[in-house]
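Lecture notes, unit on protein representations.

Consider one protein chain, 383 amino acids long.
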Amino acid sequence: MASFLFLSVLFSFLRFTSSIPSIGITYSSTVSPPPPPLPAKVSSLISALKITSVRLPDPDPSLIKAFAPTNTSLFLSISNSHLPALASNGSVALSWLRRHVLPFYPRSKISLISVGNTVLDSTTIQDFSPFLLPATRNLHHALQELGINKIQISATFSFFSTITTAFPPSSAVFQQPAGDLIIKPLLQFLEQTNSSFLINIYPYNLFRLNSEIPIGFALFQDNLFNFRDDPVTGIRYFNLFAMMADAVLTAMAAMGYQNIPVVVAETGWPSGGSQAEEVEANGVYAEMYLKGLVRHLKSGAATPLKKDGVAEVYVYELMDHGGGNNERGRKWGILTENMTMKYNVEFSSGAKNSGICLVAIWLTNWLLITSMNLILGFIGVQG
C-alpha cells in the first residue's frame, strides 16, 4: 500500500510539472528602430535567448519565413483594420492565409492566429466588434478549406475593457453588453474548435489605477503583507498576476466555459514611463516583475483557482522602440533599441525539464532499492 501511495504521488507530481505554461515574447517589427533588424537576425536572437514562442502583432511574411529553420512556435495577429474585409468575404481570409501561412507552414511552426487585438477597447476610434466573430469564423473555415487543422483561431481582449473587477476574483464577470453579444458566442466557437481564450494582463496598469495595491504584491515579492484573501473562495493570493488570471477564469466559468485554456497574450512591466509621475516604471522594478513572473510560472502555480488555467504567457516585448517610446508611451522591451539585454532573466523552460529528470532519478533509485529489498526478502524466506 505504501508503495502504491508513493507512486501515485510521484506520477501526480510528474503531471503537475509537465503543465508549466510556456513563456514567449512579443516582437513588433513595424515599430522597431529604423532601420529594423533583419528577420534572420531577429529569429537568431530569439533562439539564442532560448525563447521558444513568439507573438508577431504585425506578421510580415519575411519574418515568418525567418523562423522556419528554428523550433520557435509562432503566434500571429491580424490587425483590427482587416476585420471588416475578413468578415464580409471568405475569399479575403483565404488570401490572407495564402500570403502569411501557406508558403511557410508547417516549416514555420505557426500554432495560433489572433483575429484582432483588444477590439473592445473604449479608446479605439472605430468599433470593430461587430466584425470579430464573422471574421474569426471565416478564417477558421479558410484554414479547413486549405486542409490545415492544427492552427488555433481566436481573438485577443484587454483585461480592463473585458473584466468587471480583479478583486475579489470570485466576483468577476464579463462586462456587458459585450459579454453576451460578443464574448459568449466567441467562447462557444473556441470550445467547438478546441482553441484558447486570449487576454492581455498588465498588473502595472492595475497598480497605477489602485493606490491600495502594495508594490510588492504587483512585483511577486515575498512579504508578510503581500497577500489578499478572496472572502468567497478562501483562496489566498500572493501576487496580482494570479489574481487577475483567476478573475478571467471566473468570468469564463460564469458563462459555462471553464474548460477553455487561457493564453496571456501580453504582460510586462515598463522600464520607462510616458509621464514624469510614473516613478514605478523603472528598470529595477521591471526586472523584479519579469523574474517574479518567470519564477511564478515555472513553479507550476499559474493560477490558484486552476493549475492548468494558463497555457501560455507572452511577455511584452522584445525591444524598446525608437526614441524610447512606443505607441503606449512606455519602454517595455527586455532589450534596448540597440538590441542589448536590459535584464538578467532566464526565460527558457529548463526548470520544467530538470524537474522531470529529478523525479525520474528518484523513481529509478526507488525502484532499485525496492527490487533489492524484495530479492533480499525472498532469499531470507528461502533460507
